[in-house]
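Board notes (copied after class):
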Amino acid sequence: MDLSTGILFWGFLIVYGIVMYVISPKTVSVGGVFRGEDRQGRDANPWMITASIFIAWIFAKSVTNAANMGASFGIVGGIGYAVYWLCIPLTGWALYRLRRKFGATSLVSFLTEHYGVAAAFCFSAAILVRLFNEVWSNTSVVGAYYGDSGTAPFVIAALLFTVITVAYCCRGGMRGSLITDVVQAVLFAVLLIGVLMVVVPMNPIGDYATSGVWSLEGGVDFIIGAGLQCLSYGFHDAVLTDRGFLCEEKKMLKCFTVAGLLGFVAIVLFSLIGVHAYLNGISYAGSSAPVVVAQSLGIMAFFAMAVIMISTAGSTLDSTFTALGKLTARDLPGILGHEPQNVRVIGIVFMLLFAVIGNLPMIMGADIIAATTISGTMIMGLGPVFLMHGVVKPTKIGFMLAFWIGMILGVWDTVAPATLAFMNVGTGSYANFLGVNLWGAIACWAAYIIPGLIGQVRDAKRGIPCDWKGLSKDELAARDAEMARLAEADQASR
């Protein structure tokens, strides 16, 4: 970078940090820190939650991956990566059901109650891996706009960005994350439209729609694999699931549905930047499609792309840190029945700790797409647990079998993928990804369902009632009537 460019880029990063810190409120209540409540103790506004889910899931790594997939497979690749966003409505529906029928107040407490302490700890460990991945994968994307991977500008920018984000998270907690997410969502939308207005007209619209080949080898293997991962992917993302308990159930479901559909559209649109590279034979080897395309369009386009990445990375990273604070300060002690007095301090300490260790893969130059595909494979066993709970009898053995089959396959596929080549489906770039997730999903679902069915048969023979099915329709109706009465009384008192 020359001097003027350096001032523009580094100056923006500093100004961004100051603005985010200033607009993040100094949150003092526990409800504000962990539930996003305002100073009057009221739930977060549903539209604020929708915007937060939308932008928190527009990861810097994800928009980069979407563009890279578009550059590799045309529109097929862009749609393939966007499929992941369809897990948001599915996750919202599952959380809605668990809250209504089973009284869930968080996924960790739900697992503790129905599957035991060991299951809750296993789940929490998977969440920690996910949150760890979110740190380095997003800071790496920001660093790439300041220098090549491993160089001093790359590392300094990534670490400065981390310091900025963790600072306003410690100040505002979940409430601060929600407010800054709204600003970041608006910034992302405006700049995305601006960039697309420059890039898209460079090729006929029809060329974008017809780019790529709809075959397994042309990227359809990734689409199917991503669809299979959608059955479980959302459940291990505390950034997403924490927002499933911030407002009334029906409002929450609408938030998740709208955010997921908007995210799907946004990712497809962003992938057009990569499709442009695909159509024009632009290579992004050693970098990323957004970086290469933006550089080809001049310094202001490159700057706009950098701002998009900083805003999307910031929205995800602040949500990651707040989720981490809640997990370590409230959820993990809650598994053992403890409620620490200094929960905010504990949360801040772990946020700072993860800010340090979470950047080690970034410094070592890890591949960011691995943060998505690997973690998605490892947790494929969570799908049947949360989607089939109460459909078949929940059992501890069913949870453990499903969870560890997915975890072992995910780790195995990371360490020695060649040894799992017999599972491949097709011959494309993602033949192994599809095969492991297809056969693995079948194994995980069978491992959860079969013990449950066996338990049901045993209970029927012994005359044991099916009290694991949750609230009945009549009980739900009575519950809804009582909640409506309480809401009217609360409104009248105000």
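Comment from the instructor: The domain at 3-372 is CATH 1.20.1730.10 (Sodium/glucose cotransporter). The chain is about 75% helix and 0% strand.
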